[in-house]
Design a protein that fits this description.
mainly alpha
Amino acid sequence: MLISVTTVLSGLLADPFISYPHLFGPNSTFGGAEGIAWMKNHPYAAPNLLCSLLLVIEALLCTFFLDETLKGFTEVDVAAFNPVTIARGIWSRLTEAKNKGYKLVGETAMARRGLLSGREEGSIELDRIADANELRERQDSHATRPMQRLPFRRVWTPNVCWTLLSIAIFDFHMGAFSTLWILFLSTSREFVPGNSTDGKPQKQERGAFKFGGGLAFPPPTIGLAMAIIGFVGIILQFVLYPRANARFGLMRCFRSSLFLFPLAYFLAPYIALMPSDSASPAPASGFWIWLGIGGVVLLQVAARTFALPASILLLNNSSPHPSVLATIHGLGQADSAAFRTIGPILSASWYGTWLERGVVGMAWWYVAAISALGTAASFKVRNGNGHEILLPGEEERADEQGQVSRGPAAAESTRK
């Protein structure tokens, strides 16, 4: 929901000097006689400042209000770097070194109860104390036993590789869609490189696959079109996803949703061919234009609603051992970040190249083909249990835990 709200705000804040002349322009409420200069010279600074402010708030919330959940993490003691504490530690070390030798040992509980106190204890009491000490030592050894770590070379199981490949393709076309959607919405209608002899733009000859141009939306309308993605996602996330996931299961929903991505990307450029209430070169408008936008967004967001949480769960469950769970998530984050960067770069390059040739849909169809490969790769991904590899000693502990969970009756029957 917040993504949708900030998307709308970003669109509304773009070029405020021109969009809201009565507020920020010359002789306006806040602009004075000449208007606000920095908004005039930097028309897209306001939405970027909004994003920067939100990022600072996020950083503060994460720093001061989120707790670390990683096992084995030891929090840095800031007091240890106090100069006074360091000086006292050095002085105590020097004092101990100077006074080395024998010193009186304080009376212990065992000395008070043992032979030195003049009392004799029965053998039963001594045995009870010995058993209690042995049990305590055993518990302490189990509690302080360090977790065995799976070597990095054994992390790369087939399921991990297929899961990372599926996530890479998913993030590639998700990043590509975000870029292509904004470019397509803002591209002039019936774009043709070059002008005719009279200086007017040439008109593009259209076909089923060869057609150029976008929708020529201004920034506020682009913000509204982008916000539709968030609002549709919220509705599907709360209404459709829980019921479908409970009925059909994680893997079936994940694989089925991936078939919607190629369909959405293939149909997206054809919105430019739908009837518009306004003639070119004015921005496209009307019922059919927004119906096409809503249809493409519905397909893409419905697929994303099921695929995104499923990919996170599958990555988590693909971990071959609990000791490398953080490593698996680190690989997944690196994989996701890399392909979310590559996707916009390649898709924007394809879009510009084929737009010059009068085929605005070719970049979309490239992305549709790549997303189809991701659909095929998903059939090699399986939902793991997070502990597929057992290290030495873990099998015995697993058997012991199984006997404890089955109860003493099952253990007794096993011995018989």
